[in-house]
Structure formats: C-alpha cells, structure tokens
Amino acid sequence: MVAAASACAADDPRRSGSTNAPAPAEGRTTTAATPTATPTATPTSTPTETAAPEPEAPEPRRSYVTIPAIDLVDFPVVRYRGSPDDAPGTAFQNAGEMASPRGARGGVGPGEVGNFIVTGHRLTGTAPLRYSPSLQPGDRIQVRSGDTVFVYEVRRTRWTSFRQPQSLRAQRAPVPGRVGEEATEAMITLSTCATLEDHAVGNYWSDEFDNPEHRIDKIGVLVATRPA
Fold this sequence. Notes:
Organism: Nocardioides zhouii
Keywords: Hydrolase
Radius of gyration: 29 Å
Order of helices and strands: EEHEEEEHEHE
Helix content: under 10%
CATH topology: Sortase, Chain: A
GO molecular function: hydrolase activity
Protein name: Class E sortase
InterPro entries: Sortase, Sortase_dom-sf, Sortase_E
C-alpha cells in the first residue's frame, strides 16, 4: 500500500430546526387575546444520520520486502512520486534502498488493486536484487507495510526495454505488460537491471542514470495478507 485524503464540509443532520415564533418587535404594545390552539406540524421525514467512513491509514513512507528464495529479509523500499528508475528513484537505489514510484507514471501501493512497482539495484551498492532474475513461478515476495504483510506469488517474467516507449508503458501498466487492460487484482512488478545479459551480447547502451537498455521484471499476484 502513497495516499492523501480530502474531506468536504457538510451540513450536520443533527442541527435543530428553526423556531416558528416571531421575534418581538421593539416598543410594540398588545392587548390580551384568547389564545388559539396552534396545530403542531408533523414532519414529513426524519433525517437519517450516516456515520462517515473511517479514513484509511496513510501508507508508510517505507515498506519492507522479504524474499526467502534469494535470502532477502526486511529490505526497505521507499515510495516517491515519479516513474520507474527515474532520477529520484535511482537516487534512492544509489543510497542503498529499493524504490517504488507512485502517480500517473508510477504504480499503486502494496496490497492495492493494480501494479505495485519495486525497483532495486542488482550489481551496485547494497544490490538487494542480485539474485532476483533467478526467481521462479511460485516463489513468494512478502511486503510488510505498516501492520500488514502482503504476500505475492511470482507468476511470470517479462523484459522491459528502456529504449522503447511502448515497453516502458507496458511495465507500469495497471496490469503489467498489458497496456489498456483494466486491473482487477493486486499485482507486483519487481524490477532490476539486465546489465550482465546485455553486456554478454555486446549491448553497452545506457541512459543518463546508467540504466542498461533492459530490465528483468518478475510479475506476481497477491495471494495472501496477514498481520505483521
């Protein structure tokens, strides 16, 4: 699970109705009169008070990833507004963390329906995803966010090309790899560089942040949640 909530002020349905008695006129004199019974108005409807829904707890700035198959335990991933492996995301990775973009060019938070994107270094710094290309279908990725652990199961592998805009759009699509398809389940894209594989075939292209052309993405789906 990044989040901001806004609320609009509304009339309070508990507010009492206005009185029917006229305000006294200043300096007015009256003569006594026989009181006449005033019929009591019968309300046509009774306002129903509806409790406002409890706001969702904001997503913590950092979540923690555990992947037993590659011996990764409670590794921090920081959320930010941006796109995968852009300047801010690369800076977080260079500082030793993994990064998770949010917004129109990013993804959703852990456990949310859509594409939860996590990127991390494979060869430099703390290299948390050194062995992630070896993950197989059925391996589990656990994400601890706040007081909940979200468990994803790896289902497939896809490659992203940083030199093809369509490939980048597919990486961050709500359904990973399927641009234009509506998401119906919570998914994860765990992404790291394919530097070794690119260099092995003589491809030494890199962008301004030293990302190689290709990324190896492990795609998973949410299969369980549990208290942290």
